[in-house]
Amino acid sequence: MSKRIPSKEELAEFREFHTPSCGFFFRAKKHLFSEKSVFQQIDVIDTDSFGRVLFLDGLVQTTEKDEFFYHEMLVHPAMASHPKPEEVLIIGGGDGGALKEVLRYPVKSTTMAEIDAMVIEVCEKHFPWLAPVRSDERVELTIADGSTFIQESDREYDVILIDSSDPVGPSAVLHQQEFFWRLKDHLKPAGIIAGQAGSPIYHLASLREKSLFLSQMFKFSFFYVGPVPTYPGGTWSYFFVSDEINPLQDAAKDIPRGLQYYNAEIHRAAFSLPAFLKKELG
Amino acid sequence: MSKRIPSKEELAEFREFHTPSCGFFFRAKKHLFSEKSVFQQIDVIDTDSFGRVLFLDGLVQTTEKDEFFYHEMLVHPAMASHPKPEEVLIIGGGDGGALKEVLRYPVKSTTMAEIDAMVIEVCEKHFPWLAPVRSDERVELTIADGSTFIQESDREYDVILIDSSDPVGPSAVLHQQEFFWRLKDHLKPAGIIAGQAGSPIYHLASLREKSLFLSQMFKFSFFYVGPVPTYPGGTWSYFFVSDEINPLQDAAKDIPRGLQYYNAEIHRAAFSLPAFLKKELG
Q1: Do the beta carbons of residue B195 and residue B163 sit within 8 Å?
Q2: Which of A18, A44, B26, B141 is the residue whose CA sits 20 to 30 A from A137?
Q3: Cα distance from A31 to chain B (closest Cα, Å)?
């Protein structure tokens, strides 16, 4: 740490501001992609520390090296708690990471509704190790706003996963109660909805709001947490709601092999919330 | 995020490099202290996001806003597992945060062996809300290298806490097996040693090494984890060793009130390790 004039090297830095006065920086080896889609600014850089990094509107979405923390915790608590998850819907998730985790289960079909076709194209090119989105025969890909998609759909799902970006920009609607009523209409009786709920440090107001309406809508309504090194604060939160499945009682024993973060102990541990969060979420 | 020429404001930034190509930045409102002690460069800045921040040799040690994550998890798993922690030793911990947590228990005495008197002076001035190091009659303060101190001591302790900095610089010796043999000689029969063990992301080799020798030295040898938003990777690891106390069986019910992170659920959850860490630590 020092107070000094930045070198030329530092000018090739990419930063995410977590607040107006702090954040994370990456030194890019290469700026692989930079374009504005209809919905957002999309950037991909290559770094020594985290490999390839995807930014949407300046916020880190996924990195080559630490994507597993987020995608495993977004997907497995719900998938491993459901007795037989055959029909799965992913809202968002254009990078393919959530899909990769879902496809570890013997699902019959996984529908992905991603609003931004450019995110899918960019990730197929620059993150090819994430799910081969278009090639798995179990995958149905729709380019659509998640809220509109679910309203027009006549299908029901065992597990619905919300892999949205933050409650500003194109994902705002995916954080509102009206959207969750629509989702609930398309949930099978033992269905589960899980999704990302933001940083328990920086987005506490949004968690509180979501907690309030989800606990009114579902018999079982939980938040859980897990680390994501490159996300603000290094810890992320997720919600889990269902009218039949209690993730603390019904967690399945047959967890897919080869996971890097999630396991049966982590499943239980993740639902243990810090004192300040229990207080905030009532 | 953008690729651009830094403004004047950004020149007053303080950075911690987590690797040569990424890290955390703070914009300082004020640079409150900057001096080189006999042992290390000490800086205190004031920030909008995390309040006051203490750096030692350029690494964030503690911040006003998130110190509780680290200090609660360093102290309470050991203190709450011990049936009657009366004699406590803290090695390092000059900022006073660990001491503050220890003094929540009805201890008879707490000895603190901090190598750098300037750290104590600076923190008494700039972090006065942390433990009033010199004023509590239960506190015995020694300015000494922890390794030498324990070698020359004729006392035994119920709980020994290692609040060291990283295994480079003045704290290097506090991460070696020889030091732990010395500590073990000064541990009462039901005694516990706990301490910080670095980032499970960035310091995996150091964790592995410590795990190997600690598991040979003690009947119960555990690692546990918890978030610290301003530390590299956002998640930190700690060790817990004892010949009599198993933290998963003997955790006390009488946890001090008023904690912000730690609670009985977190105690159990923290010992649940991610798949990659279980694999690494065998």
Answers
A1: yes
A2: A44
A3: 10
Closest-CA residue of chain A to B229: A233
Domain with CATH 3.40.50.150 in chain B: 67-280
What pLDDT digit, counting tens, does each position of B121-158 carry? 999 999 999 876 667 899 999 999 999 999 999 999 99
Of A196, A42, A39, A216, the residue nearest A115 (C-alpha): A39
Report chain A residues whose CB lies below 8 A from the CB of B36.
Answer: none
* Chain A residues lying within 8 Å of B50, measured CB to CB: 22
Q: Which CATH class is domain A67-280?
A: alpha beta
Could you tell me if A16 and A24 are in contact, meaning their C-beta atoms sit under 8 angstroms apart?
A: yes
If one looks up domain B9-63 in CATH, what number appears?
Answer: 2.30.140.10
- Convert the pLDDT of each residue in A125-181 to its tens digit: 999 998 766 678 999 999 999 999 999 999 999 999 999 887 766 777 888 899 999
Q: Choosing from A43, A66, A145, A163, which is the catalytic residue?
A: A163
Mapping DSSP to helix (H, G, I), strand (E, B) and coil, where does residue B200 land? coil
Q: How far apart are CA B282 and CA B270, in angstroms?
A: 18
**DSSP H or E segment with residue A223:** strand A220-227
Residue B13 pairs in a beta bridge with: B27
Distances (CA, A) of B143 to A188, A239, B27, B243: 65, 48, 33, 29
- DSSP-derived secondary structure for B233-264: TSEEEEEEEESS--TTT---S-PPTT-SS--H
**Banded pLDDT at A3 (limits 50, 70, 90):** very low
User: Distance of CA A196 to CAs A23, A71, A131, Å?
Assistant: 20, 10, 19
Domain with CATH 2.30.140.10 in chain B: 9-63
Q: How far is CA B280 from the centre of its chain?
A: 22
Residue (of A269, A255, A229) closest to A68 by Cα position: A229
Complex ipTM value: 0.92
Cβ distance of B43 and A1 shorter than 8 Å: yes
